[in-house]
Each structure stands twice: as C-alpha cells, then as structure tokens.
Design goal:
Layout: H1 4-17, E1 33-37, E2 47-52, E3 58-62, H2 73-84, E4 99-102, E5 110-115, E6 122-127
Antiparallel strand pairs: 1-2, 2-3, 4-5, 5-6
The structure holds zinc ion (2 copies).
Length: about 130
C-alpha cells in the first residue's frame, strides 16, 4: 500500500469483495452503490463495476495484479492455520482477505486452493503440509 489514494481504492475493493456496502464518493451524494462482479471466467483478479443508485455514477473497482514475489511456504502455512481456526487470513502483501476453496480429493486429505483476488496470487496446498508430518 502506497498512497492515500491507493489505500482508499483497496478498501473499496475489500468492501466489494466481502459484499459490504459501497458508498458513492461523489461530493454531496453518498448514495448506496450496486456492485456487479465482472470478473472473467477463471479470472484471478476480481473486477467489479459499481453504480450509484442515486446519481448513477459508475466506478470500476479492480484488483492490482502482482505475482512477484510469490507467497513463501511460511506465509501459505500461516494463512491455512488461520483459516482452520475459523478466522480470516489476509494476503501478506496487500492485506486482502484470502479466499479458500476446498478441492475434491480422492485420498480424504484436505486440499485447498488459496486465492488473493486483489493481486492474483494463488496456490494449492495439501493439509497438513508434508513438512508438518512427524
Ligand atoms: Zn452517487
Ligand atoms: Zn494479495
């Protein structure tokens, strides 16, 4: 996170991602915005379009794709541990809430896909990870 403007854009992105209310930023408006997900199929970075129900201003709310440096194994393990405690892990690079998808698996082990819809970083992992086995 760099400028105030980027922080603001990121917090609007998180509101859209978590289906929270997004409020129009036009001076003197402050109306509720209708958010539509325009993410392409298999898109790794979410793209939303918000339209103000009051003044009909349209705003694009999108992530900022960035893949380098990738998540390291320590941060992936940490995100999984937080998830298993039923809390919300966030991307270590941009503080965006991580999305967990349980994948079907033939061997009855937990397998997850982890996605950050803001930067597009993603990975798949088995749980427990091999290095945690004793
Ligand atoms: Zn408005
Ligand atoms: Zn991220």
């Amino acid at each position: 996170m760099k400028s105030e403007r980027e922080r603001e854009a990121h917090s609007r992105f998180v509101q859209a991602l978590q289906h929270e209310h997004v409020i129009c930023t036009k001076a003197g408006c402050g109306g509720p915005m209708q958010v539509t997900d325009h993410t392409p199929h298999n898109g790794k970075v979410k793209k939303y379009e918000a339209e103000c129900e009051q003044c009909h201003a349209v705003e694009q709310i999108t992530g900022k794709e960035e893949h380098a440096p990738p998540w390291d194994i320590a941060s992936i393990t940490m995100m999984a541990e937080i998830h298993l405690l039923h809390e919300q892990p966030t991307c270590p690079y941009d503080d965006t809430p991580i999305t967990f998808i349980s994948l079907p698996n033939p061997r009855r082990k937990a397998r997850y896909r982890l996605l950050c819809y803001y930067c597009g970083r993603h990975t798949e992992m088995n749980w427990p990870p091999p290095e945690a086995k004793r």
